[in-house]
TrEMBL record:
This is WYL domain-containing protein. Residues 316-340 are annotated as: Disordered.
Length: 340
């Protein structure tokens, strides 16, 4: 074999071996992610897989899971650790793609992750039919932010009109228990907002304008129910079934509209009922809140869910990409000039 051919064959073998080595390394990580019993090991592997790309040049793997699928596989592992079971993962035969569904939910609804490509990284868990993003998840920064607006849109305004609370409840349980598990096991920062069940929690509200008549409208809707709206300092309250108490009130705050900052509070004595539970279980409160959202609604993390903020960031990124860049000339070496 000539020296030139020998070098070419050796180079060929090395490139193939490097590609195969990278594939084998990926396979080992995937196998461990799927079978490891140590949650911390699973978390580390999920971090690695959701940020890695298998861009081998000579050995091509035509069917691969996407980064979004690694998030779904990681979610499934953590749900199994948290003993959450009322869901299924669909895997189509013709492609590698993971979709989460709820077998008991008698409404077409499928869920996947959508990788976030801005500087925040992470991924959104969304319902495909409506494109509603229910939460944001960053493995790197250990953050989970739930989206009160999309959760209300999907579960209260959409699903609740079409099916029973019992069929919706597994989705609520999955979201809540996933957040609790990640917070307890890994020290995640979790913004539950509408899912929070702690009795002394005051739901932070985004006031778009002064909600004049907010309590009067609740009184009118409650009049046809078995529950009596009672006056409390700066607001009103309702005592529902099982001694669950709902309070709607304001505190004086000079920085807000008309110096009134409004809050919702849910008290059940066991830290087990959320504002979302109330909206789902009591149709008249759900109907009231859906109308009042034009004035006041439970707030989510604006960094990842504020549409106006995202649009500004997208325009800024587009402007940077479209800006004229100075041409950088790379001088030819003497050898390259002689070859040309």
């Amino acid at each position: 074999m000539t020296e030139h051919l020998q070098k070419r064959v050796d180079s060929y073998v090395k490139i193939l071996a490097d590609d195969i080595g990278r594939i084998q390394q990926l396979l080992a990580q995937v196998n461990e992610l799927a079978n490891a019993t140590d949650p911390k090991k699973v978390h580390l592997l999920a971090q690695q897989l959701t940020t890695a790309t298998l861009d081998t040049e000579w050995v091509v793997v035509p069917r691969q899971y996407s980064q979004a699928d690694w998030y779904m596989l990681a979610l499934e592992r953590f749900l199994s650790f948290a003993a959450v079971t009322d869901y299924d993962i669909l895997t189509p035969a013709e492609r590698e793609e993971l979709t989460l569904v709820f077998p008991e939910l008698d409404i077409p609804a499928t869920f996947q992750f959508e990788v976030n490509h801005d500087q925040n990284g992470g991924a959104y868990f969304k319902e495909l039919g409506t494109n509603k993003r229910l939460f944001y998840w960053s493995l790197t920064r250990k953050q989970i932010f739930f989206n009160a607006e999309s959760i209300t849109d999907l579960l209260v305004e959409n699903f609740r009109k079409k099916t029973t609370v019992a069929r919706i409840r597994p989705l609520v349980t999955l979201l809540t228990n996933f957040g609790r598990y990640m917070e307890t096991t890994f020290g995640y920062r979790v913004d539950y907002n509408i899912l929070e069940t702690t009795d002394d929690f005051l739901y932070p509200l985004r006031q778009k304008e002064m909600p004049a008549g907010i309590l009067d409208r609740l009184f009118v809707l409650s009049a046809d129910s078995d529950y009596f709206l009672q006056a409390i300092p700066n607001g009103a309250g309702l005592v529902l079934e099982n001694n669950v108490e709902v309070r709607v009130f304001y505190v004086n705050d000079a920085t807000t509209t008309d110096a009134q900052r409004w809050h919702f509070q849910v008290i059940d004595g066991n830290d087990s009922v959320s504002w979302l539970d109330v909206l789902l279980d009591y149709d008249f409160i759900g109907a009231w809140y859906l109308v009042e959202r034009q004035f006041i609604e439970v707030e989510s993390e604006p960094l990842v869910f504020d549409q106006n903020l995202q649009e500004v960031e997208a325009r800024e990124a587009e402007a940077k990409e479209s800006a004229v860049q100075p041409e950088v000339l790379s001088p030819h070496s003497v050898a390259s000039v002689e070859e040309s």
